[in-house]
Amino acid sequence: MKAFNITLISFAALSVLLITMLALLPHLSEKIRLYKQCTKYASGYSEEKFNKIQKGISEAEVLKTLGKPRYEFDSGMGNKSWSYSNQECGLSDFIGWEQKGITVNDGKVIDTWTNVFFN
Fold first, then answer.
1. Could you read off the pLDDT tens digit of each residue along the chain, which spans 119 residues?
2. Which residue, 7, 52, 85, 96, is most buried by CB atoms nearer than 10 A?
3. Are residues 47 and 1 in the same domain?
4. Same domain, yes or no, for 97 and 76?
């Protein structure tokens, strides 16, 4: 019974550690930036400029600040999204990449977003 209790405690501790690591992964990836080596950004993009984009500004202001996005797509419910980055390496060549973008509706920014993808 004592061995079972130790195993159960070890499993619980390992579970808590794993959940904590998974919860911190997005924050750590923002600091480490290992994935940037395989991210291709739009020609006018910079992190500093992207951080200036706020909800409510016009599409024209976004284009003036960041330039033309790499991709545009319909994101549903009358929204469209502009992606300012994409993957530039083959699937077997990278650790990960990030997708930075904005979502607009009725000519105004309603969201900015970052997606991180890991191989």
1. 555 555 656 666 666 666 666 556 555 555 555 455 678 999 999 999 999 999 999 999 999 999 999 999 999 999 999 999 988 876 555 567 889 999 999 999 999 999 988 76
2. 85
3. no
4. yes
- Domain of 3 in residue numbering reads as 1-32
Total residue length of the chain: 119
Q: Are residues 56 and 107 in the same domain?
A: yes
The CATH number linked to 74 is: 3.30.1450.10
Q: How many CB atoms lie within 10 A of CB 42?
A: 20
Residues 28 and 42 in one domain: no
CB neighbour class for 111 (10 Å; exposed up to 12, middle 13-18, buried from 19): middle
- Residue partners of 74: CB distance under 8 A and separation at least 6: 80, 81
E strands, the chain, where? Answer: 39-41, 71-76, 79-83, 85-87, 96-105, 108-118
- Whether pTM > 0.85 for this model: the answer is no
Which tokens go with 2?
Answer: 């004592």
